[in-house]
């Protein structure tokens, strides 16, 4: 009996370690996609903070700049809090939305459809609770499903 119990514990640790090794994280997976695909417009060089972008959105968009997203903290703002769902709405391919229309940043996820789908899959795994709702419409359970591991 004791041998079975110890074996079960060891197998549990091994499977947990394997799952954690495969987990998509910001530092291992998302950061490099952001650097390659997004930071030309959302990097720290000249991208504004959220409040500055919102205040003069037309100006910044004419400059080809969006709000700053070059750090984990900045990116999580658009994913988990305070502008929950914004990142998901903009990166989504439209296949699960009612309209079927992709988000306005989907095309920037890669050079071709295969690369876009690969990168979208990474983002979906990283977020966990992928949704296209705006904050007032999101339930506590949906908020709890958002993971965004560092």
Set down the secondary structure blueprint.
Blueprint: H1 2-22, H2 26-37, H3 39-42, H4 50-55, H5 57-62, H6 72-77, H7 86-91, H8 113-127, H9 140-144
Helix pairs in contact: 2-8
Report on this model:
This protein is mainly alpha-helical and 150 residues long. It has one domain. Helices cover 54% and strands 0% of the residues. The chain is built from 9 helices and no strands. It has helices at 2-22, 26-37, 39-42, 50-55, 57-62, 72-77, 86-91, 113-127, 140-144. Helix 2 packs antiparallel against helix 8 (113-127). The radius of gyration is 18 Å and the shape is globular. Residues 2-18 have low confidence and may be disordered.
Please report the total strand number as a whole number. 0
Radius of gyration: 18 Å
Helix content: 40-55%
Let me know the largest β-sheet: none
Uncertain stretches of 5 or more adjacent residues:
2-18
Order of helices and strands: HHHHHHHHH
Distance between the termini: 39 Å
Instruction: Tell me, briefly, the overall form.
Output: globular
Number of domains: 1
Mean pLDDT: 87
Strand content: under 5%
Counting H and I runs of at least 4 residues, what is the number of helices?
9
Structural class of the helix and strand makeup? mainly alpha
Summarize the entry for a quick read.
With 150 residues, the protein is mostly helical. The protein starts with a helix and ends in a 6-residue tail after the last helix.
Which descriptors would you attach to this protein?
mainly alpha; 150 residues; 54% helix
């Amino acid at each position: 009996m004791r041998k079975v119990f110890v074996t079960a514990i060891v197998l549990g640790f091994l499977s947990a370690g394997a799952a954690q090794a495969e987990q998509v994280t910001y530092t291992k997976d998302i950061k490099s996609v952001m650097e390659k695909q997004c930071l030309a417009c959302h990097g720290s060089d000249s991208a504004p903070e959220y409040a500055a972008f919102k205040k003069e959105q037309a100006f910044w968009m004419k400059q080809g700049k969006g709000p700053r997203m070059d750090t984990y903290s900045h990116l999580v703002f658009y994913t988990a809090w305070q502008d929950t769902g914004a990142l998901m709405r903009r990166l989504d391919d439209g296949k699960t939305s009612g309209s079927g229309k992709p988000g306005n940043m989907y095309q920037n996820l890669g050079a071709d459809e295969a690369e876009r789908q690969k990168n979208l899959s990474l983002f979906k795994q990283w977020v966990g609770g992928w949704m296209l709702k705006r904050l007032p419409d999101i339930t506590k359970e949906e908020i709890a499903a958002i993971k965004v591991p560092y």
